[in-house]
Amino acid sequence: MTSSEAALGGLAGELSDTAPCGYLSTAPDGTIIAVNETFIRMTGYGRDELVGRRSFDQLLTAGGRLYHETHYAPMLAMQGRAREIALELVRRDGSRLSVLVSAELVRGADGAPQVIRAAVFDATERRSYEREIVRERRRAEESEARAHDLVQALQQVLVPPVPPRIAGLDVAGVYRPARHGEEVGGDFYDVFQTGPDRWVLAIGDVCGKGVQAAIVTALLRYSIRAAAMAESGLGSALTQVNQTLLDAGTDRSSTVAAVELVRTDRGWRATICCAGHPLPLLVRRGEPAEQVGAPGTLLGILPRPAFQEVPVDLCPGDRLVLYTDGVIEGRRGAELYDLDRLRQGAQQGGPDAAALAGRLVDDAVAFQGGTTRDDIAVVVVRACELDG
Questions:
Q1: d(Cα 258, Cα 190) in Å, to the nearest integer?
Q2: Contact 101/119 with Cβ under 8 angstroms?
Q3: How far apart are CA 18 and CA 36, in angstroms?
Q4: What is the pLDDT of residues 223-270, one digit of tens each?
Q5: d(CA 23, CA 120)
Q6: Closest C-alpha to 378, from 206, 142, 248, 359
Q7: pLDDT confidence tier of residue 151, bands split at 50, 70 and 90
Q8: Closest CA to 99 of 59, 50, 51, 47
Q9: What domains are there in the chain, each with its CATH number?
Q10: Do the Cβ atoms of 245 and 220 come closer than 8 Å?
Q11: Alpha carbon 333 to chain centroid distance?
Q12: Residue among 103, 7, 94, 9 nearest 43 (CA)
């Protein structure tokens, strides 16, 4: 051997001993036959306590020894290698060290096993990181469960389950949250009485989703109730609601369609006032469905909004269909559900308000393949005889 070869050999030995991972060689039966200095520091044993005195599996925890016997050793025997096996070494002082082990089985020319060479990496920080990931995942799952419960509670608060019974009116509403209902949206509707034979119906859509949108939705709904009781006319009421949203400092706009229903000698007078919301459909017997009302300013944007009140007389059998944009803007690929499709569905409905509202929502959902991208709300009002 030349002096250069000897020097290179010495350098290789030095690098092996000072490597950032432990090296060890074992006989096929697991008896340790060589270790480097890093492995000695990792375990706390002396070289003479390891080489020829212990097998690799004796340095493992009870669970590790079982895994060694059932997985690690058979893997080496069958595949000739094992990669990044997570184990725990038991140090000389009894403490434990999380490690990752990669090993290869070296065979002789006759195919018989000769030696197992293994690299052992300190995985303390990695295992801590993995445990933190598990903890974070568990916290996220718990948070998601709480959020789901909150969504359910908010939706129950924001959307009345059953509209009130009103003599001379058949009223029904259906709400379908986006996707699978995992996130609360901004769609809502409400029906409430403001005086003898006087009712207000409101439907709206707050921009965005999530808890913040739900908070604004709740504020909007109850502001509409309060303003409708205090103000004379829907235009004045929506102006007051607009100011309430501006004073709240929210950055979320909202659309609303409000209808005041007042009993008359011939049936009902419906006064429609819209704030940036899709105009309601009026369906009369034997006539095509048509939009009624006039566009108005979005709520929560301008300090001086403009609204227009449009009166419509409802005779027995006439229907008003109110809806959110999740219906007409539903997509199937590049195709929109659109207003014409909603008109056709509204004209084909029977006299029952609940059946018509349910069928319109079901049709809009089916058009999108059963899963909607946006919330959907539909409210149907049908004028009927006093004893109807």
A1: 9
A2: yes
A3: 8
A4: 999 999 998 899 999 999 999 999 988 888 999 999 999 998 888 999
A5: 6
A6: 359
A7: low
A8: 59
A9: 3-128 (3.30.450.20), 160-383 (3.60.40.10)
A10: yes
A11: 22
A12: 94
Residue 3 — pLDDT band, cuts 50, 70, 90? Answer: very low
What are the angstrom distances between the C-alpha of 112 and each of 83, 106, 108, 116, 334?
21, 9, 5, 12, 66
- Span 158-183, average pLDDT: 79
**Predicted confidence band at 135 (pLDDT cuts at 50, 70, 90)?**
confident
- Written as one letter, the residue type at 357 is A
* Residue 169 near residue 384, CB atoms below 8 Å: yes
Contacts of 295 (CB under 8 A, 6+ apart): 274, 276, 279
- The tens digit of pLDDT for each residue in 30-64 reads 999 999 999 999 999 999 999 999 999 999 999 99
Beta bridge partners of 310: 272
What sign does the CA torsion over 191, 192, 194, 196 have? Answer: positive
First to last CA, the chain: 112
- What pLDDT shows up at residue 9? 42
Tens digits of residue pLDDT in 84-109: 899 999 999 999 999 999 999 999 99
Contacts of 142 (CB under 8 A, 6+ apart): none
b/e 139-177 (16+ beta carbons within 10 angstroms → b): eeeeeeeeeeeebeebbeebbbeebeebebbbbbbbbbb
Max CA separation in the chain (angstroms): 119
Across residues 129-147, what is the average pLDDT?
Answer: 76
Both tokens of 158, joined, read 């924001």
297: which DSSP letter?
A: P
| Residue 124 CB coordination number (10 Å) | 12
Q: Are 101 and 83 in contact (CB under 8 A)?
A: no
> What local confidence, expressed as pLDDT, does residue 66 receive?
92
Backbone angles phi, psi at 253, to 5 degrees: -85, 170
Amino acid at 118: A
Under DSSP, the state recorded for 56 is: G
Round to whole Å and give the CA distance between 354 and 360: 10
Backbone phi and psi for residue 122, each to the nearest 5 degrees, phi listed first: -65, 115
pLDDT of residue 183: 62
